[in-house]
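Table 4 source record.
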Amino acid sequence: MNTFKYALVSLLWPAMVVSTQKAPVRDYSEPDAAEVYGALSALQSKRPFLFLSTTVKPRICSVSEEKARQIKDPAFREAMNAFRDVNEHVWDLSRMLKDRNTISEEELDETFKPGVLDGWKQFHQKYPQSLGYFALSAIGFNSAHTVAVVYSEGHCGGLCGAGGFKYFRRTSKGWQRVNTELPRCDWIS
């Protein structure tokens, strides 16, 4: 029986190792994304935050294909469909956020390994100037790059955070946030 277990583990071990390895994360280099991220971060608190160096998928917020079809504005409908497609992958935002202080998902995982409360203590000890961190999705643009959809979330403590979709339109003054009747999905804790 032990020989059988050894043989089974020997055969399965390579597959188990490969399945736990993360797929390589590619650089996010969408034209106009840096400007939209800049417009989004200009809306945030003036106190310093770190930015997660990779994109996040909206865990709470999602817009199904059926809901996207109900978006009346064709440009935003196209951008929402692009948003869903581009966020099928995790992207590296390091180059896009080169002028911002970033933190990796691995570093966050290690910091919060002891639990939420101890994790936030460690976080604030390690980054005393930072209120917390922001996580951003990849951005969905329409094909003309005149509108954009992005998801963002900010975390500042165990029960301190907020997130949701943000919508932008390109204007003569740059990317401006717009309030629309599009799916909001704003949350706060």
